[in-house]
Amino acid sequence: MNAPDGPTLLALERQVRQHGSAIKGAELQGCWILQGAWPKGKTTPSPLGNWVLRGLKARLELATTTNGSEMAICNAVNLGPLVLRFQGNAELLGRRPLLMFQFNALEITLWGRRVLQRSLPSPAPQRRPFFALIARDPSGWLAARGRGGGLALWTLAQPG
What we know:
Elements: H1 6-19, E1 30-38, H2 47-55, E2 59-64, E3 70-79, E4 82-93, E5 98-110, E6 113-119, E7 130-137, E8 141-146, E9 151-156
């Protein structure tokens, strides 16, 4: 898998803003492992931040639901046997498209046992977080820009 660098992602993003990416929900299913995050306005990833996020096994999990228009979303990190997981729902909107989501539950597990589960309040509709999807490459990577302006690159985890 040849993942793109920052300048390549920015060029892809300019193209997608004009023409859209036509990414479909079925193409997003799976467990995506964070490989890099670029702060807003930067063309290189943050070395320390990326090292920490990779060390925490930061990941984004997406699965389509039975009705097909919504998706289940999970954002999680591990700190040894401790897992912090935000869970909610998402939907694809527009031709770019935007993956709009909200987390409605926080769960913490320790050695596979749930030690905390809390409901989270819904954000105002105009404050919902999103990922503006840039590209989903068949070789196994996904790139998107978040609501805060940062750029993220994930690779699809291999089953097993």
